[in-house]
Design goal:
Helices cover 35% and strands 18% of the residues. It is α/β, with parallel strands linked by helices. Bound molecules: phosphoenolpyruvate (PEP) and manganese (II) ion (MN). The site of phosphoenolpyruvate has 9 residues, from loops.
Length: 337
């Protein structure tokens, strides 16, 4: 249920209603909007509860939340959420650009990448230190050493660091070095991991599972939001279909649909979404045109020699050209990049 406070209801009335919601055994999430303050009361809904809350001081009305997800829903918070993490801003008219290699491979590789993507206009650096690989015989990432290199690259360039965490055991460690914790597609429904990043104090980039529905993605986000972490970005990274010419199928209607259902910002990953470097720039431009709040793109100093995902990684020159085109489209759809 949503407890909608009257316009200008004072803080003591909001606090009073929060304790009443909690006293009824429900979880309270206060959302302060520009127009009004609402309290999302999460838990079993009963008519008596609704009536009891409606009689509270400063309450305008109590309405049910129809969507299966609650805190993520536009019903609870109509204003778009802006996620800020260091140099990265995503949402409400600002398009963030997260770029860098699939994996951190060496000091030289990550420093070169950080300088190049920054010069082209990226606002955050990506790079995996813990890599989810299909084969256990493939490169698994540099782990803590990779995290240290990412933090050093941030020190030098000022770029916020986005990197994946694969296990609850590593959340604290990754949060020590990163500005944004990425939950990979394979872990979208690892609910204990979602709860753990919900309490880590860092922003989260939640990638859609390759066979997850959008409701499942939103319910996964709900696990993070319920821990009190409001800085969640959703990421469309392509889904598995019968099509085999692209690595995954990248549905851009996701951006438009999710904007109608949630206040959370939407990031698109055209690198994993297509799996081919020659398809990435056009899909990045199309994502911006569709209203994406951010992009995450793989870029490598020498894609041919990359230890992972080289075939879908852009060269520095290709990234620079793509960035310039994305900027022009962003301007055309009233966004800044
Ligand atoms: C990645 O970003 O390198 C990655 C492994 O992405 P996904 O989880 O979307 O496959
Ligand atoms: Mn990758």
């Amino acid at each position: 249920m949503i407890v909608v406070m009257k316009h200008g209801a004072p803080q003591d009335q909001v606090d009073h209603m929060v304790s009443r919601v909690e006293g009824l055994g429900l979880k309270a999430h206060v959302i302060v909007g520009t127009e009004r303050t609402v309290i999302a009361a999460i838990g079993e809904k009963r008519e008596e509860t609704r009536q009891s809350l409606e009689s509270g001081p400063g309450v305008a009305e109590v309405v049910p939340i129809l969507a299966p997800y609650k805190v993520a829903s536009v019903e609870v918070k109509p204003e778009p959420t802006v996620v800020k993490a260091g140099s990265l801003t995503v949402g409400k008219g600002t398009v963030g650009m997260i770029a860098g290699p699939c994996s951190v491979e060496s000091e030289e590789q990550i420093f070169k990448s950080a300088h190049a993507v920054k010069a082209a206009g990226a606002t955050a650096l990506r790079g995996g230190a813990f890599k989810p690989r299909t084969s256990p015989y493939s490169f698994q990432g540099m782990k803590e050493e990779g995290l240290k290199l990412l933090a050093a690259a941030r020190e030098e360039t000022g770029l916020a660091v986005v990197t994946e965490v694969m296990s609850t055991d590593d959340v604290e460690l990754v949060a020590e070095y990163a500005d944004v914790l990425q939950i990979g597609a394979r872990n979208m429904q690892n609910y204990r991991l979602l709860e753990a990043v919900g309490g880590c104090g860092r922003a989260v980039l939640l990638k859609r599972g390759a066979s997850a529905t959008l409701d499942e993605l939103l319910l996964a986000a709900e696990y993070i939001l319920n821990e009190g972490n409001a800085n969640v970005m959703l990421c469309e990274r392509g889904i598995r279909t019968f099509e085999s010419h692209t690595r995954f199928t990248l549905p851009l209607a996701t951006v438009i649909y999710l904007h109608q259902k949630t206040h959370l910002p939407i990031v698109v990953d055209p690198s994993h979404g297509t799996g081919h470097a020659n398809l990435v720039p056009e899909m990045a431009v199309a994502s911006v045109a569709a209203g994406a709040d951010g992009l995450i793109v793989e870029v490598h100093p020498e894609p041919e020699n990359a230890m992972s995902d080289g075939y879908q990684s852009l060269t520095f020159d290709q990234f620079g050209d793509m960035m310039a085109r994305c900027r022009r489209v962003a301007e055309a759809v009233d966004r800044t990049m």
